[in-house]
């Protein structure tokens, strides 16, 4: 059987699931896939690899390759490697991303471009799948076309090598570019990601977008009648192409056991975990604000946990207890919730390389696993829906689940499952005849991920303490009428800190309460460059609306202490662009920011209020941070381009960060007198020099 090497780099499991799907399908097409996580460098060697390589790569919110690919990327970025280091390698790459973020599919693009620089060549076109419109719109046809490309590669590799090269599939547009100087390679890749129009897209991508538009139009027509549980023609009458049934591989035994103490320490983590008490909680917004924002102080004095301003950390949180109980009840497992879950690989499984899920600890109760280990709010993938089909007895329900996982039902899946954030419990309540075994849930539900938070303090100003800030996320369920849901982590935190919560908006003056301090588990996040410059004399620009201001509070506290300790040093200007809805309701850290401004720590404080009317009628409204940035374009261009300044952006990735990015392109274009492409090159250079830094989230 013809072998190929299959690597995946995943952050939250998407790339792994797609790679496993490729692996499962390979045998039916006469191939054998050697599947590994890209971090498992002891299990493969690209330098000596003779088989074709297939890589599936996801992208983080800031446009970086996932954590699992960090060592691999560092290794191939070694500037001493010769240009023919991978000249023997033939590969195909599938990148995953979200076009609502500034750096779409950059994880895949970084690896793709570097492999090209080191002499590797494509045997198959690069695919860029967009989670904004549905990954499957690109993933499914890309996988379907992979087998013909592999066959062509193996046939051509039997001939002379020149013919093999001639037969390989054409490269993507970015790889057809004229050769560029080595120091410009990364800059050019950033420019490609910053394009403002679609002129660089291939015809196939345009066709895919047209197909998406047609699907969206069809969805609008169907809006009056179709729903999660019901379809209308033509889908309800169509012949369906449904995916193959994923092979079962787990055997589950529930073992009755005397009650035992279980702790969060059983939750798997690659980083050290610290249990720390909450020493203070303060509400930063008024009660009539649209969002409720809390500041929480953790006591880290009895741990080895350390941080710099700008760092982030992971917070380990559980699922909602009421949702866990509802799921147990629906699965008819309430009476067995305290039973220990014992897992084995099924002896007769057809799943290649089947392994026990590493995120499910041994000898823990069912309730513990559903509470601390599995993301029960996760949107079920199509493979999960396909597996649920065979657990459903009602004919109409079975047909609807088949439609939702079929190629023909892609628009309905996007609308009623993916975009509605429907989870497993939603589906089980909507399809009452579906009775999945516990093993199926453990096979398909992903790991409950820790939630990242920015540090909002400086250890110089608050020794032994760590502050962080969050909005209590609340949203209406799209699947259950009039049900207000809270975010998994923020809802839990809000309840947890109620006993010590103070409705005092001036965070620095509130003292901790006398209630018993609740405990939470945190772990450090590594490889962060969102730090103050080593040289305190360079100017910095901070853009942080809403809770995006959090790391900049740490920056300002740190700078204040440095200026107290070293008053003779020269310190660069500090600009802060902050924004919120209402000055009197959600102006976070108002007193603190005024203090920093009054004492010259913060040299420029520019605040915008998106829902307040201008103070005077003749004033032009400055609604958002990008409007204020535009008003000070000359000064900011001078700081960034002539005074070696740094710019930091923290907050919402899909709207604010993109708008700020576009505004910076406009400013550079206008102030320097260059076209937008050259302005993008300049901005890309700043990013490459780590003078344009982002800490953004969705």
TrEMBL record:
Q: One GO BP annotation here? A: methionine biosynthetic process
**What GO molecular function terms would the record report?**
[methionine synthase] reductase (NADPH) activity; flavin adenine dinucleotide binding; FMN binding; methyltransferase activity
Cofactor names from the entry are: FMN; FAD
- Asked whether the keyword NADP is assigned, the reply is yes
Cellular compartments annotated: Cytoplasm
Q: Which residues form the FAD-binding FR-type domain?
A: 271-533
Q: What class of enzyme is it?
A: oxidoreductase
Source species, domain of life: Eukaryota
Q: Name one GO cellular component term.
A: cytosol
Q: Matching SUPFAM superfamilies, A to Z? A: Ferredoxin reductase-like, C-terminal NADP-linked domain (SSF52343), Flavoproteins (SSF52218), Riboflavin synthase domain-like (SSF63380)
Give the enzyme's EC designation: 1.16.1.8
Q: Does the keyword Nucleus apply?
A: no
Keyword tags: Amino-acid biosynthesis, Cytoplasm, FAD, Flavoprotein, FMN, Methionine biosynthesis, Methyltransferase, NADP, Oxidoreductase, Phosphoprotein, S-adenosyl-L-methionine, Transferase
| Domain Flavodoxin-like per the UniProt entry, residue ranges | 4-147
Q: Which reaction does it catalyse?
A: 2 cob(II)alamin + A + 2 H2O + 2 H(+) = 2 aquacob(III)alamin + AH2
- Tell me which InterPro entries the record gives: CysJ-like_FAD-binding (IPR003097), FAD-bd_FR_type (IPR017927), Flavdoxin-like (IPR001094), Flavodoxin/NO_synth (IPR008254), Flavoprot_Pyr_Nucl_cyt_Rdtase (IPR001709), Flavoprotein-like_sf (IPR029039), FNR_nucleotide-bd (IPR039261), NADPH_Cyt_P450_Rdtase_alpha (IPR023173)
Q: Quaternary structure? A: Forms a multiprotein complex with MMACHC, MMADHC and MTR.
What's the protein here called?
Methionine synthase reductase
Species of origin reads Myotis myotis
Q: What is the lineage of its organism?
A: Eukaryota, Metazoa, Chordata, Craniata, Vertebrata
